[in-house]
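Person: Please comment on this record:
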Amino acid sequence: MAMRVILGGGGTGGHLMPGIALAREIPAEDDSSSVLFLCSDRESDMLTLKRYGFAAKPLPSKPPSRNPLAWPQLAWGSLTTFCSVYRIISAFKPDVAVGLGGFASFFPVVASRLQGVPIVLLEQNVVPGKATRRLAGIAREVVCQWAETVRYFGVKTKASVLGNPVRDEILAGTRENSLERLHLDAAKKTLLVAGGSQGAHAVNTMMIESAPALAARAAELQVVHLSGHNDREAVADAYKQAGIRAETVAYLDDMSAAYRVADFAVSRAGGTTIAEFAACGIPAILVPYPYAADQHQLRNAQSLAEAGAAVVLQQEDFSPGRLAGMIGTFLDNQVLTRRMRTAALAQARPGAARSVLGVIRGYAGAIESIDSAQPLTPQTIAKRHT
């Protein structure tokens, strides 16, 4: 069945990558289908979508300001952006629109709904983000990764638990090829350190401070560290001073290589990161971002820990000795590591992209007339969410 699909959202890899995983399934089923991403104006979004070969249009996507002096400029910018989005959608004529989460998803979803296009939302976190909560009332369905997420939506919102779409290449390749690609030693255990698509300064600092305490394990430990650009040299130097073999990169296009070599991980707890860890069976020490809205990373981490697939280290509880000790436990206790790997795989939903495709296929072609008895307007949307 040929479809025309809008995917709106981005700003972080956690929102964008599930959209890419889903979008790759659409032409695979029918190559006459068309996909258009309406993403944030961050350079990383456009570079990523260009690398995957998807058509995309960037939208200014600054979140609302709390400074009243900025409101007039923000209102004018929002109006012009919304009008631009509305025209793009009108010209593209989608059969269905998918909100990927984040502030960048708001205008594409609302503009699509005003034109009678059925809406499906993806929610990666245990606690739904603000955009998803505000848009749920105008969506046909919200697809969740976690069963406990459903309770955050009212009885009038259809919510299903189908998982978070994960890219096929995450599961591709072999450990041997990946070790060679990353210049690593097959005889050592590999720690993957990841702070999200942009890196995480606090996680980088933790590893820099813990490196001296890990020096005694240099004969058996090596590290793949995704640091972001700003801290790469400092992180690489810390491992070098400690005598630890490490591949420190600002960003890694081929995440499947990192996942294939990883025996365990130290990471933030974004919803998409967790879905990928589960798909690859990677036990993790999760360090939730402490300033995330509604503590959603903490709830993600706790859910995976309750399943036996991770342990949680809150940022305020960090000490170099504590983190080094936790890493040492993974190195020493292979029974624990195998048990956690099995628990992680049990949380995986490798068919999530196909399942979500089935949902949007069901709504495609169900374009509504906007001349209904209760037409949808920006005012009615605002009233639902005040």
In short: The CA atoms of residues 150 and 253 lie 33 Å apart. Residues 370-386 have pLDDT under 50 and may be disordered.
